[in-house]
Amino acid sequence: MFDLVGKLQSKSLEETVQKETITSVLFHQTQECVDLVDEAFRFENINAPSMLSNRDAAIQQHVRESRVEIVIVELNLSQNVTKDMERISHLLPNSASVIVIGSEDAISTIRNLKEMGFYYVFWPITKQELIDFVRNVNSNRQRNSGLGKDRTAKRVGIWGTKGGVGATMLTAEIAFELSNLQKSSSLIIDHDFRGGNLDIFLGIKQFEKKHISRASLASSIDATYASGLVKKVNDMLAFISLESNELNELELKDYIRTLADQLAGQYNFILEDLSRANNSKQDLDYIANAYDVVVLLVEPTVSSVREAKRTLRALEIANSDARYLVVLNYTVSEKAASVSESEVKQFLGRDVDIVFPNEPRLNKLILDDKHIYQHDYPVSQSLHCLTSALLGQPENSDKVSWIHRLLKRGN
């Protein structure tokens, strides 16, 4: 006998509507926003986002431990939406599309967030408006269009005004602090194609640079190929270091810049070690337009300060849009320095942004595979100041003043 009821039940089970899957997370400030987002997603049969309080620690942990397609950030209680998103942008993976919900009704807010690669939704919003917006963002992701598709790493060049001023050490320490303390994914690019000590400062044993042949120039360079040349230090930090017996330095520079462009979408920061022995006028012309921040590393000597002034002038002539941070690194004790901080300031015609006091324990730290950021030395505080400046955090100035006072007490 034909079992009509059983047949209908079986068909009903087979045709059960599947939930629309969008992997998302909401970092919220108010329960009202939580309720609206939850109801909107569930009503449309979409997997509800993970719901977490809008705190830096929660953002750091969740977005790094989970694969998220869409991040929703509620800033209804924010006094300045743009500044708050600038503050947390380095915590968000470039692969995720970011929707900001806020009650700040200003064209400038929309424009500023768009420049950062973020969508903006004005609160209050209806459930249907929110879902339509989320689906549109998800559709843009599928087509690789819309905001976020071009969100790339902030590129930082650490420019040493002379050899031995500490550019490689500082590059490594900034990278460790960004990746381990700030939870920002970082890539170091080594511009020393003949040797260098980056592996020592990173604590990498039995390291060998990636060898590049001339045939490599004919290869199709995409993000997958470029990723194959990267060596991981930890989950949040990697570096790329090349050498070649066939390519000259100019060819290698062009090659590694192409790799950096391909890798920019995978990291929050790209840090480039530009030691003075390896840079040139052509490098300055390039970084004037390609970099977001240039850290100009100076030691308290006449030759170093003169080179710093020439560099600043060259960047000015090139109409650079980069932000400059002048860092005075005391490679010797302050009493043994040939020029003072005030003389550096007078000669450059601008303030020194960060002062790194001389640290006699530095060599032992390096030999013991330890790092400045892990300690509470005065030089460690300077490193925290510099990292804060790179992130655009406002508390940097107070810390710098504290270090200046500490240096003066030491004399």
Automatic annotation (TrEMBL):
Keywords: ATP-binding, Nucleotide-binding. One of its GO terms (molecular function) is ATP hydrolysis activity. GO terms for biological process: negative regulation of cell division. InterPro entries: Cellulose_synthase_operon_BcsQ, P-loop_NTPase, ParA/MinD_ATPase. Pfam families: CBP_BcsQ. One of its GO terms (cellular component) is cytoplasmic side of plasma membrane. Transmembrane segments: none annotated. This is Chromosome partitioning protein ParA. It comes from Vibrio aquaticus.
